[in-house]
Design brief:
This protein is α+β, with helices and mostly antiparallel strands. The protein contains four helices and five strands; from the N terminus they run E-H-H-E-E-H-E-E-H. It has helices spanning about 15-30, 35-55, 110-115, 140-155; strands at about 5-10, 65-75, 75-85, 120-125, 130-135.
């Protein structure tokens, strides 16, 4: 069974485009049955990834777009894809903003927020260019069920 697409659009490299993405994510999260706390977390992760795509990836170039896709994920979750048309970057090169040497720097906090609020995050270079961010959020109850099921299977194996 193929996952249903809830949103698929090419957004402007502007702060209005960021707002449009956040609104689409909020609606999708609500439709998927996430509680208000997780709706806010999903929206903030989308906002941070979009700001990175608009500001750092596309550098506010109005000709370049940011592609946003939101799909249903297994176990009632949401899968979110954000791809810019910029030069791309290596996410591992961004220093951890929690380290003492980087506390005062503004960069890296968005990635930290995204990783804290989403259950799965993968960042890779796009093809032929740009950066592609893949994020997934699962409902807490579904994750607990999945972990419980896995624990039962593992206990039978030992």
């Amino acid at each position: 069974m193929q996952a249903r697409t809830l949103f698929d659009g090419r957004l402007d490299s502007t702060f209005e485009g960021v707002g449009d993405a956040e609104a689409a994510g909020g609606l999708a999260a609500k439709q998927a049955g996430f509680d208000e706390v997780d709706q806010d977390r999903i929206c903030l992760a989308i906002r941070e990834a979009m700001v990175n795509a608009v500001a750092h990836g596309n550098r506010f170039d109005r000709v370049k777009k940011v592609h946003l896709v939101i799909r249903e994920a297994p176990n009632g979750g949401l899968a979110i894809e954000i791809a810019d048309e910029g030069a791309g970057f290596d996410a591992s090169s961004i220093p951890d903003p929690r380290e003492a040497a980087h506390i005062g720097r503004a960069s890296g906090r968005g990635l930290l927020i995204i990783r804290a609020f989403m259950d799965e995050v993968a960042i890779r270079r796009g093809s032929p260019s740009g950066t592609h961010v893949h994020m997934v959020k699962y409902p807490e109850s579904k994750m607990v069920d999945a972990v419980d099921s896995l624990s039962r299977v593992e206990s039978h194996l030992h």
